[in-house]
Design brief:
alpha/beta; 10 helices; Rossmann fold; 8-stranded mixed sheet
Amino acid sequence: MASMNCHYYSFCLKHTVDINVIIPTPEGNEQITSTSSKEAYPYEEGLPVLYLLHGAFGDYSSWMRFSNIERYAQKHRCAVVMASAENSLYQDMYQGNKFFTFFTEELPELVKSLYPVSKKREDTYIAGLSMGGYGAWFLGLSKPEQYSKAASLSGAVNIAETYEGIKSETIDGPFPWNAVFQDPEKLAGSDADLMVLYDRCVKEGVVPDLYQACGTEDFLYEMNVKVRDKMKEKGANITYIEGKGGHNWDFWDKYIQDVLQWMLPV
């Protein structure tokens, strides 16, 4: 397993950024020949790649520090890319940085030029937790030609409801709404609304497969159930999982394993 930190200047964000990248490599206990090594670790044709998103209050290092993602990436022999989005909800902010453009254009271009990852849509996945759960579906449904599968763990999957909950102080969140969106009062039905994006994907004929998991003790559980039901009404190809747990790393570390098995069965 190779775990690398890359520190570089982002032309999109106009400042230096850090990214963490995991590349699976043959381990010492793997009894393999050079031929089978190439089959198991196809660096020349490119490894499957997962863009893994953090939640609010987090950054590019969150998954590395609080989960066993390195071990899981090794098991499924996929590259994993992690970068920071601040508390931007993965948007091109109305007043601020263009994180949507960074994650969907600049970052993939850099990763594909520096690391042995596949350039194929069918080998490219996105997942995240909480804010990043919304972000994974938002990026995946906004750019369905790039990602074949998108997974949300404990996601804030209804952006308008999230805004109303934080405004009424029934949900806690650090989001600078008026900097992220021109008019946060009009999020329902906007390009930030996952239902709008899903319908657009269907109309255009390219839709990523969706995965959704949430703990039954999570404060976002009811939101997730309602979004699941709406997606099923629309006929979405969605895998929904729920289990005992809250909005915490015990749940996310457990269910990212299920996400990887759904994406890359072994």
